[in-house]
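Input C-alpha cells:
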C-alpha cells in the first residue's frame, strides 16, 4: 500500500463514511498530498533509525573481538619484548587500539544521529496528527451535507453518562425472610454504580472498568 493510499484509508476511518480522492476538492487533495509527504518522512527516518541501530550492533560485535585481540597482543608483546617479535606485537597492539578508538567514535556518532532522528520523528508525527485532524474536519464539512451520518471520530459528540443498571434484589442471607404482613417479605438491595470517564483520544464517555473505548477503539492507559 502506497503512503497516499494509507493516508486516504486513515482519513476514511476518521471521517466515518467512505469516499475516494475523486470526491475531494483540489484543496483537500493537496492536503492529502501534504499528509502523505509527512508520513513518508516519518517512515524514512524510522528506517534510518533501524539501519543505524543495526550498524551499532555490528560495531559492538567488532569492538568485542577487537578487545580480545588487543589483550592477546599486549600479553604476547610483554612476554616477547626482548625479541623483535615482541616489538612487532606491541606495534600491532597500538594499531588495534587506534582502530578500537575509531569504532567508539563511530558508535557515539551513530547514537547522536539516532537521537536527532527520534526527535524529528516525534515532531513530524505530532504535525501529522494535527493535520490529519484538521483534514478530517474539512472532509466532513465538505462531504457530509445531505448524508445521514454521525460526526467524524476526530471529535465525536459528547454523550450523557449512561444510567446505572437497575438494583439487584437478593433475599437477606443472614436469616430467612420474615413476615411483616400477610404477603410482605424484607429484601436487601445491592446497587452497582458505573463510573464514566472520558477517552483520552476521542473524548467520548466510557465506563471506567473498560480498557478499550467503544467509540474509537483506543486502548486506555491504566
Amino acid at each position: 500500500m502506497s503512503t497516499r493510499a494509507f493516508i486516504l484509508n486513515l482519513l476514511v476511518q476518521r471521517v466515518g463514511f467512505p469516499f475516494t480522492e475523486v470526491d475531494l476538492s483540489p484543496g483537500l487533495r493537496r492536503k492529502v498530498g501534504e499528509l502523505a509527504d509527512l508520513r513518508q518522512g516519518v517512515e524514512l527516518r524510522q528506517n534510518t533509525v533501524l539501519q543505524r541501530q543495526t550498524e551499532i550492533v555490528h560495531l559492538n560485535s567488532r569492538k568485542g573481538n577487537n578487545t580480545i585481540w588487543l589483550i592477546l597482543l599486549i600479553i604476547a608483546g610483554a612476554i616477547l619484548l626482548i625479541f623483535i617479535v615482541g616489538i612487532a606485537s606491541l606495534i600491532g597492539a597500538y594499531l588495534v587500539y587506534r582502530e578500537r578508538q575509531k569504532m567508539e567514535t563511530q558508535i557515539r556518532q551513530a547514537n547522536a544521529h539516532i537521537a536527532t532522528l527520534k526527535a524529528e520523528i516525534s515532531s513530524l508525527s505530532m504535525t501529522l496528527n494535527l493535520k490529519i485532524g484538521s483534514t478530517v474536519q474539512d472532509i466532513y464539512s465538505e462531504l457530509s451535507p445531505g448524508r445521514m451520518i454521525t460526526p467524524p471520530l476526530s471529535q465525536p459528540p459528547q454523550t450523557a453518562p449512561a444510567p446505572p443498571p437497575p438494583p439487584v434484589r437478593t433475599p437477606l442471607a443472614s436469616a430467612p425472610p420474615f413476615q411483616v404482613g400477610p404477603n410482605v417479605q424484607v429484601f436487601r438491595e445491592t446497587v452497582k454504580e458505573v463510573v464514566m470517564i472520558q477517552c483520552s483520544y476521542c473524548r467520548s464517555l466510557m465506563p471506567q472498568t473498560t480498557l478499550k473505548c467503544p467509540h474509537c477503539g483506543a486502548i486506555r492507559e491504566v
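The mean pLDDT is 76. Residues 156-222 form one domain.
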